[in-house]
Design goal:
mainly alpha
Length: 84
Amino acid sequence: MPVQRFGSVFDLSKGEFIYRAEPVLVQKKTAIEIRNDSVKRDLDNALDKLKSIADENKVGTNKDMRRLTEDILRLVNKWTDRVF
């Protein structure tokens, strides 16, 4: 079975390359890609916080759970009605 190589291999004791891999060009992310990653991460964090708040309020009063549910549904309806 052939051995897969993912990069160059250098023998420190001999001071020479055992295997020299072909160079691979690594594309840097553009400013737009970096910003998009940041926005997506922020959205994921906000969703995690919302889930945490919802979980914590499951042991709250019915009035508080109802109010939170209505707030979440208003937000969902606002964004569901938008055309992308």
